[in-house]
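User: Modeling request: complex.
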Amino acid sequence: MAADDEFAVALDRMVERDYVRLVRAVALFSGTTEDAEEAVQEALARALEQSRKGRHIDCLEAWVVTTAFNYVRSRFRRTAHGRERLDGTDRAMPSDPDADALGWQLLDLRAAVRSLPTRQREVVVLHYYLDQSIRSVGDALGIGESAVKNALHKARGTLLATLTVDNTGRSTQ
Amino acid sequence: VSDTDSLIRERLATAAAVNVVTDPRRVRENVARRQRRIKRRRRATALLGVLAVAGVAAGVVRAVDRDSGGDVAVRPTDAPREPSDNAGPSNAAGLAYFLPAPGWETSQAGLLATAANVPLGPDALEGNFPAHETIRRLGDSDILMQAALIAPLESWGDDARRGFPPRSLPLSLDEATHVAFEGSPDVWADRLGATVNGWNIDVLVFYGGTDLTSVPPVGPTAETRAAAQEQLARLVVKARR
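Assistant: Request completed. Predicted assembly structure:
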């Protein structure tokens, strides 16, 4: 029971300190903040349930984000529009309201992340955005370190291509 | 690679900076609500699991019951008995059955009664009519006999008794015709139609060691036919209500 309470406190602290970062990480994967918030809250609830059942979670942050990824994926699979969002084919956002603030290059970077195959997208978010080590990413996704490195290598090429494209002539209209 | 990684990290951090309104209290409430939902879902899943297991168990019990004498009764026996409307296996649910006799195995499945002086195959026990798998195993002097009950429908009108003339028990093979069946075309078979106790009855008797394809055809011996007649005389048909 004490361990249970301890875990609840740790989770509470995570909500206070890291909630926004977690939601942003999942939003990179899913495409919308609303979906990401829902997925992160669901993952936190599942983490509490795991703890209540006496199961230990090694890296809470990676576990929560990976569970949120899975939640988003299973929800999106249920609808055709969701599947488009899942595979990134709806990534065109010609009048994105964030365009002025962020600039096209960064918007394209978001779109590029969402156009990556699921595994590469997961690896990119966990490693590049959440700063998880290669080993932690592998543990969280249940794959080997070489598979993580391979996915990162492929994703790096796609993302770099986006970052080196000249977008100076584009308008937000 | 490290410069590239740094560049991607830096740009990704900026690109991911979507506006998230945080209210820790609301987040905690939502998480607690979801946790309650997870518990409810787990309880419902467990309940469904229990119901599914109970359903499967009930199905198995029913199947075992059926296989052990509900709808199908198999009984090799030693003691001959006289036919009677009230005689027969104590657990007989069938409306027609063969009384047991030494060296004969009988079964009943629904409206089908089967008897053979060889072990009945699964097809016969399952109620196949004719039971070709058992027929193929028949050797010299072996016999498989099946009687199928058919309830005449009013819509059949005057044709209701076509091929099923009124007869009385015990039936006689002297009134049967010999036929060849698709599936067992080379085996000699006797077929006898009758209306008994309100039922149309289709009786088939297959004889092992026969060959309809040879010239002249090889039929059952007189002894084999006599044995078949003795068993046919043990057919019991309950009156149709």
